[in-house]
Design brief:
Blueprint lengths: L5 H17 L6 H8 L3 H7 L3 H23 L6 H18 L1 H10 L4 H20 L10 H20 L5 H15 L4 H9 L10
């Protein structure tokens, strides 16, 4: 996505907050202008439509999270540890930023950019784990496994946002159960799912 000027950035940030809060693309221009602290005419002159604004917001959010998770894996070669960490990164971030969590929870399954955020790195690590014998599944099951992982993460985010579980409990449970489903032995899966999670690196 092209770089944004300061006014466009304010509009995008305001739109993100409203999309997350309302859970729908049907955001009123007046509400958006008030949230961004700009005139309605400024909003009209800086966006094509609410749909294209939403897609831009979702695409940027997905790109940023994907790059941060990918960067965290630079020194980590085990695909099982990478998968466990990736699952927990999403759940921890939903705890740390509830608006981000709400946006992901409400839109991730229906938006292509957000689905790609979940699946691109996981696909690499799943195929790597399969070829090395780390995982046991049939390659034609890959899409079903990706759906299992993404839906499990979204369910865990819901538990955290609703206060039913802490991010640590929910993240570790989800990572352990996914690894066990892929053929990682119970005790090893539990260990991989409970190691101290590093900070997500920042990106330029």
């Amino acid at each position: 996505m092209q770089s944004l000027n300061p006014t466009q950035r304010r509009i995008h940030q305001a739109a993100f907050r409203l999309f997350a809060e309302k859970g729908t693309l049907q955001v009123n221009i007046l509400d958006l202008a008030q949230e961004a602290g700009v005139a309605r005419g400024t909003v009209y002159s800086n966006i094509e439509s609410m749909e294209t604004l939403f897609e831009a917001v979702a695409s940027q959010l997905a790109k940023e999270m994907h790059e941060r998770v990918s960067k965290s894996f630079n020194s980590l070669s085990d695909p099982a540890q990478r998968l466990a960490n990736g699952i927990r990164f999403f759940i921890r971030r939903a705890h740390e930023d509830s608006q981000w969590g709400a946006f992901i929870h409400k839109f991730a399954m229906s938006n292509a950019s957000l689905r790609e955020m979940f699946s691109s790195q996981a696909t690499t690590d799943l195929l790597s784990g399969l070829s090395s014998g780390r995982y046991r599944f049939q390659q034609e099951q890959l899409l079903s496994i990706l759906t299992m992982i993404s839906s499990s993460v979204l369910g865990s985010i819901f538990l955290v946002l609703e206060g039913h579980k802490t991010w640590r409990e929910s993240g570790s449970d989800t990572a352990e159960l996914v690894l066990r489903a892929l053929g990682v032995p119970l005790e090893e899966a539990k260990a991989l799912a409970t190691v101290e999670l590093p900070a997500l690196p920042l990106i330029d």
